[in-house]
Amino acid sequence: MQPLGFKKIDFRKMSVTCTGRECYWNKAPRPKNPGIIKEKGDYYPKRDTERRATFDPRAKRFQNEDVDIVARLLSLLKTSQDTKSLWSLQLKTAAKKYEFNTPIVISDPIFADLIVDNYDGPPRDTETVKVQCSIFFWLMHWVRNYHRTTLELQNTRGQTENGFWYSERCVRVTASVAKQVLGLTSPEAKMNFLRKHMWGLDKFESPGMIYGKESEPIAREEYIKEIRKEDPQATVREMGTCINPDFPQLSCSPDGLLFSEVLGDRLLEIKCPVVLAEGDPNHFEQFLHQKQKWNFFLKRNKHGSLELKKTSQYYYQIQMSMAILNLTLCDFVVWSKNGMVKLTINFDMSFWQEKKKRLMAIHRSLFVPEHFFMRTPRFLLPQELTYPEFHEDHEDVYFVNHVEGDM
Asked: Source organism's superkingdom (predicted)?
């Protein structure tokens, strides 16, 4: 409160009188000691643009200039963009020597001579790789000289626990990834797939995969008990990697083969989904929320019966496996500790013929060249090639001369 009749005055806003200012006119002059005249560049030094461009704000112990790490970062930057932009074209990746921590074991000596485990330096000459791809592709079909029916490759039982199983898978397209291979469109997606499938890198084992591997033997035993109620003489044989001489670049590793004079021979495929670990597959809708039901591989038809969705990766896997094994029936088992579903799947020839043609083309242009270019382990995008067609005549002079000269 201000006293009545008084007004508050802010002296800070009042102008200063001449006598109130600091005396500056009687001060001593500034000393004049001029130095040596310098060049303009000495007064205005150039900025160290290189140092700024390569500056790493991290502590020294965290700084890493490993070429693979840089290549992976650049690859992630490219793949994280929904649309391509001009700046991504400036991201140049460098390659360095790459070596396997664990040597790849190729059981076939012919392939072992062609595939080189260690590779360094610039990419191989494209024309040389084309010749190697043709020889590789031709030799793969030599199995026709010795087998005309489906065969199981030696020492491949045990699947994930067997090193030979991995070595045979890496040179082929397997049934379990058939749908994934057909869906590979971008170069980045192809690179990530080949790193994992062909070279065994970036491995990841989810809880669902662990649960499935642990539950499969139990599910197989329960399936055998159910089958023997209809045919006491029925047997189920566990299998390794199987190929068909007509298209040896494709393979499958079935969970089992049923041999029965009553029911007929058929393929066995077992799935143990972790989302139904505590539920009953016969009533899967009760245990899944809406999004899970939408993504689940089973559905109910208009009659209320369970069916396998034809868009599911498991449908692709089953159709390809039956084609390789020359079977027309498959028992598809979905198991949990609270119940089991057994569906009979018929072979669909029209579905398979279209998928077979595409899978063989992808294997030829993408898989085979990658064995020789070896780009994806170094985070380089794969290179696809078109090379001379496979010759049905195994006495073809072109191939025989190259085989004898290169081996």
From this structure: Eukaryota
